[in-house]
Design brief:
The complex is a heterodimer of chains A (225) and B (300). By secondary structure, chain A is of the alpha/beta class. Chain A contains seven helices and ten strands. Chain A folds into two domains: 146 residues, P-loop containing nucleotide triphosphate hydrolases (Rossmann fold, 3-Layer(aba) Sandwich), CATH 3.40.50.300; 66 residues, no CATH class. In chain A, helix 3 packs parallel to helix 5. Chain B is 67% helix and 8% strand. The longest helix of chain B is centred in the middle third of the chain and has 43 residues. The radius of gyration of chain B is 31 Å and the shape is rod-shaped. The model of chain B has no long low-confidence stretch (mean pLDDT 82). The structure holds adenosine-5'-diphosphate and magnesium ion. The site of magnesium ion (MG) has 5 residues of chain A, from helix 1.
């Protein structure tokens, strides 16, 4: 679904990513780990086309990203569910409208999707918070709302950046369970995290591949994980 | 295609798409106020263009239609010279008719200056011949030349000496009125472009979020376009109404050539200012759309 081919990336300073190749096939579960500042967020942004690589090529759904114009990028994003590192909500709209936002921008009839939306709220345990504004939510609620928004379009792949970053242990268990469930439904999942306990737990339930960024290279993590 | 659907959205309204951008208090107020002020000025420029247009037409009409011959001669020669002048006029191409004014008519013309009891027959007042031209007009220089030879007391006054510059000034004022309308429209476009740019900058983070969840540029632009178009239409409707009311209560037109009191609309001309809010909305639509799409292209 998403493929990085010999991708290099720098922000003008030193090289951040160098000759990175990886493929995220349908139904796969990947973790991306590495120390803070290693380039996890950057790699994810390359996957959902927010950044263009300095060298090499990114392919989404079989199409080289370089061939996509701005509308093409917008349409590809509707097939990629993104949980942004800091969620990125519209703070003036209630949570339920934030979750429905991808439907609205795609011109879909939200009334027809009301059942779907209610189900998603229940699934993420946010039904009673539907009318709250994003700043009123706790960290865990925000992450679950971001996940709900990421999956409302039934994307083929879900990309989550530190989804358990600001939540307690119990909440991280719930989020992991949601991600595992999505994967069981056939979605590809890519999770960036530096939370090794989370990875270890997930590995007991799913055949996840663990990738580690080290010195600009992406490598399979060792047996310690 | 998408422009047409945008215009459709504008009419029908897409409240959901609108809500994605929070209301922006201060650009909203500024746009309303500036559109109102611009519309007010535009209506006055329009009134100026119409008034000066009427004036220019009237003066040009007068120019084309008539001229006068003044004839002063020693007592015994007057009638003979009048006969000669009328003969010449009869032979001049472009003269539709020529008529000697009666004493009574001349008295009436002079009455405003000298009172009704002027004894014209006792005074050496020149006699007047009124000439009506055909559309093509006559050759004034040729006519003067012949008159000088055969009726030396006759002086051709073709009015152009004083009216032509006035008519030209009126025509130029009308042009200025039209140019002002264009400038007002341009200034309004520039102002809305700036306001839309400010609104886009203020909402950069929201735009980033919308792009993240798959919004196309036209969707994002539309939220801003709709907002600014409706504001410009509302503001300029108020400005137009105010200006039309102000013009309607101007004191009624005075004398024939009174220009300042003639400022206003006559009859069907009153329909024209109603176009001002429509034009303002069109200007706002395009200014915002172009500004938004250009700005969005620079974002990731
Ligand atoms: N837009 C940017 N411009 C310049 N440098 C950046 C930008 N984004 C990230 N960086 C730098 O790139 C490095 C990797 O960042 P990031 O991908 O966020 O790492 P991680 O998510 O693994 O913590 C950091 O040193 C960060 O400062
Ligand atoms: Mg990061």
């Amino acid at each position: 679904m998403i493929e990085l081919k010999d991708v290099g990336m720098n922000y003008g300073g030193g090289t951040l990513l160098d000759g990175v190749s990886l493929a995220l096939p349908q139904g796969s579960f990947h973790f991306l780990t590495g120390p803070s500042g290693a380039g996890k967020t950057t790699l994810l942004k390359l996957c959902y086309l927010e950044l263009r690589p300095t060298t090499g090529q990114v392919e989404v759904f079989g199409e080289p990203a370089g061939n996509l114009d701005r509308d093409g990028v917008a349409k590809a994003r509707r097939r990629i569910g993104v949980v942004h590192q800091d969620c990125q909500f519209l703070d003036h709209l209630p949570i339920v409208e934030n979750i429905a936002l991808p439907l609205v921008v795609a011109g879909r009839d939200t009334a027809a999707e009301a059942g779907n939306l209610a189900e998603l709220l229940a699934w993420t345990g946010l039904t009673h918070r539907a009318e709250a504004l994003p700043p009123e939510l706790s960290g865990g609620e925000r992450q679950r709302a971001a996940l709900a928004r990421a999956v409302i379009m039934s994307p083929e792949i879900i990309v989550a950046d530190e989804p358990t970053g600001n939540v307690d242990w119990e909440m991280s268990q719930r989020l992991l369970a949601l991600l595992l469930e999505l994967n069981r439904m056939g979605r590809s999942v890519l999770v960036a995290t530096h939370d090794l306990t989370l990875i270890r737990q997930a590995k007991t339930k799913v055949a996840a591949r663990v990738l580690r960024i080290r010195n600009g290279k992406v490598e399979a993590a060792g047996a310690d994980l | 295609m998408s422009v047409i659907s945008d215009i459709g959205d504008l009419m029908l309204g897409d409240a959901r798409a609108d809500r994605v951008v929070p209301p922006t208090g201060f650009t909203a107020t500024l746009t309303l106020f500036a559109s109102g002020a611009m519309a007010f000025l535009a209506v006055f420029a329009l009134a100026l263009a119409f008034a000066t247009g009427r004036l220019a037409e009237r003066w040009e009409g007068a120019l084309a239609q008539s001229a006068t011959i003044r004839l002063s001669a020693p007592d015994g020669e007057v009638e003979a010279q009048i006969e000669a002048a009328l003969t010449i006029l009869g032979q001049t191409p472009g003269v539709a008719s020529a008529r000697v004014m009666s004493q009574a008519e001349q008295a009436a013309l002079l009455a405003p200056w000298f009172g009704p009891d002027l004894p014209l027959d006792l005074l050496p007042v020149p006699r007047l011949i009124e000439i009506t031209e055909t559309g093509a007009g006559f050759d004034a220089e040729g006519l003067r030349f012949r008159l000088a030879g055969e009726a030396p007391g006759a002086v051709l006054d073709d009015h152009s000496r004083w009216r032509r510059p006035l008519a030209e000034a009126a025509a130029r004022l009308r042009t200025l009125g039209v140019v002002s309308l264009g400038l007002i429209g341009g200034a309004m476009g520039a102002m809305i472009t700036l306001a839309a740019g400010a609104a886009l900058s203020a909402n950069a983070q929201i735009i980033g979020t919308l792009r993240l969840v798959g919004a196309r540029d036209v969707f994002i632009a539309r939220a801003f376009v709709r907002r600014f178009t409706l504001r410009a239409a509302a503001g300029s409707a108020v400005g137009t109404a105010a200006a039309m009311a102000a013009i309607a209560v101007l004191p009624p037109a005075g004398g024939e050539t009174s220009f300042l009191t003639g400022l206003g609309f006559r009859g069907l001309e009153w329909v024209w200012p109603l176009a001002v809010p429509v034009v303002a909305a069109i200007v706002a639509f395009w200014a915002t759309r172009l500004a938004a799409l250009a700005r969005l292209r620079t974002l990731p």
